Amino acid sequence: MESVQKVSRGEIGQLTVGFTGPAWYTILPEMVRQFRERFPQVEVVLEELCTPEQEAALQAEQIDIGFLHPPVAVQQLQLIPLRRESLIVALPEGHALANCDELPFGQLADEPFILFPRHMGPNLYAQILELCRDAGFSPNVVQEAAPQPTAVGLVAAGIGIALVAESLQNLGRPGVAYRPLQEPSPKLELAAAWHGENASPILLKFLEVIEGASLATVAL
User: Do 193 and 76 form a contact (C-beta atoms < 8 A)?
Assistant: First the structure.
């Protein structure tokens, strides 16, 4: 009887969480820690998925909640905005442009670009291409790579440059220099998303943690 009551209260069971890299480098570990402290009998399963994969998984009820990058195409999803951060340039250490405090985007015209595949973030991909067009060039994409730490590894190997979330600096990857852009940078938004018809008690408990976490909500 007690275990049944715990299930009904969301205190026992399993929570499956989808996430992108920027969520893991910033707020997600703290939220998971707080949740596990409050509900130690809930098993938390973490799956790294890009935003379109999370949308599909939420719709198919394969994950309970996702930490992804709006906008989303699935209308049934509910969102809590969490963070908004700029993209910055990751350069091989020792690159001539690493001497600049800020980079005019036009100076990247002749650089080999490492970009994520378009389907993994079509909105952000379009913003990056628009930024290139405004600077008068089309990017020379020499490699597609995801997730972002993979792209940064390719930068360290001297393959090219990459536009990455500023939180990626937290990884402390050797061989890479990070520089902001002079121009307004595309923004990477992060939100928690769940299917509006998911009434799981465990999900509701996790949403309480998200809404109550001191570092969870950042105004967009």
Answer: no
